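Worked example 3. Consider a protein that binds adenosine-5'-diphosphate.
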Amino acid sequence: MGKRYPVQIHARLPRLMRIIFLGPPGAGKGTQAKLLAKKYTIPQISTGDILREAIRQGTLLGLEAKKFMDKGELVPDTVIIGIIRQRIQEQDCKNGFIFDGFPRTIPQAEALRKMLVLLNLSLDAVLSIVVKDEILIKRISGRRTCPVCNAVYHILHNPPRMPGLCDRDHTPLIQRNDEKEETVRNRLVVYKKQTQPLIDYYKKQGLLKEVDGEQTIEAIYSQIAGFLA
Ligand code: ADP
Ligand code: ADP
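Given these inputs, the predicted complex is written out as structure tokens:
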């Protein structure tokens, strides 16, 4: 009888998971990362959210990052690597983390590999969300974000309960600064040039799982849950 105990206790512990979400802007990385973070009780680490928060607070990092973000360019690797090095050593990452929007270049991926070796940690999976360009543009143009809690909505596919207001804190939703059509097109070009090579990089390491990102949010989530089961 007593033998059942450890099993029940174990079932309540958060599952240790280190995951990367890879994919073009608008693919649904943030949406899925938030759902998984809740399921596994581990943090979603979005470099985009960290940078936007720095911009809101007017820090030096924010001032520097804004110049690149407004043009749809990537923020320099050294800045991003510094942010991640600090972040993954915080207490809430001890049971794992979900990267959303990091790494975005080969040098970032290499820096991460070295950091994990030093910490004696390894990655469980790299989930690459695949969506065609026309759909990405529609998703980005309909995206609305809460500037306070970073919740993400879509005016058609994932609308808030009250139009224009965040479900959680009722803050008016905004469109991000880098969501103008011209900037979005540049972000897609930058993705193909600088981030897409990571697909092969992680394929070679046997970590890559391709996710069909053109399904509903729920169907994508079940596909991912299947990969991680
Ligand atoms: P999306 O959700 O549309 O993919 P993000 O919020 O992840 O966009 O990123 C917004 C912007 O922040 C990027 O266009 C880039 O300027 C900057 N950024 C975010 N993460 C990184 C990163 N890992 N490396 C370089 N720049 C980044
Ligand atoms: P990313 O983090 O990759 O840039 P987001 O998670 O912010 O992508 O999603 C981009 C937009 O598309 C958001 O408005 C989101 O609500 C919406 N979205 C996300 N997944 C889907 C989906 N499977 N079908 C339709 N819309 C989606």
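Take a moment to read the result before moving on. The beta strands are 17-22, 44-46, 96-100, 125-130, 143-145, 152-154, 208-212. Residues 181-195 form the longest helix (15 residues).
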